[in-house]
Amino acid sequence: MNLSVASEDIAGSPEFRHLSSIAGIQVDLRYATDNNFVGRDLYSPFDCAWLHAEAAAALEKVVAWLRERRPDLTPLVLDALRPQRVQQQLWDALEGTGLQMYLANPERGSIHSYGMALDITLLDAQGRELDMGTGFDDMTNLSHPALEEGFLHAGQLTESQVANRRLLREAMLQAGFLGINTEWWHFDCGDRELVRSTFRRVL
After folding, report:
1. What is the pLDDT of residues 112-126, one digit of tens each?
2. How many CB atoms lie within 10 A of CB 24?
């Protein structure tokens, strides 16, 4: 099996699903806008509103779980499929900044490049993002789930902000996603080493 596929070739593939096919979510792909840490649209002319079918099914479980427990909230997808060529651009943009720890090395492959990772937050009933203590792609320690308790005790994160993060994690983890220690918004669908060894990477 060829373990890579061009992003131009995934439309119509049963392996991938378009985000528009998933009911109950909102989508604001930040790398398709200038509202990101690079400050420019990195996705056009490519449509990157895709997920691997397995991750799409897991996201539907997130929607169903929230509908039952918190019908006032809606998942907002900030990033889904990120082609390898875009991962390389992000990596290059952070060269020499000391911030490359926030990205997967393109040589190994980001789980985003397999359509098996999501950057996600939650919207309230008025369509406003819940306060998570930092914005998306905030590359500081305040974004680190592993450090939340310390920041909570120090008064740098509020009970409400941490509760919002915990709610997001609970919604994602029950659907089979796994969080990471450094970004409250990032979730992998299943084990990343298994993904790297068995799924096709989108170039």
Report:
1. 999 999 999 999 999
2. 13
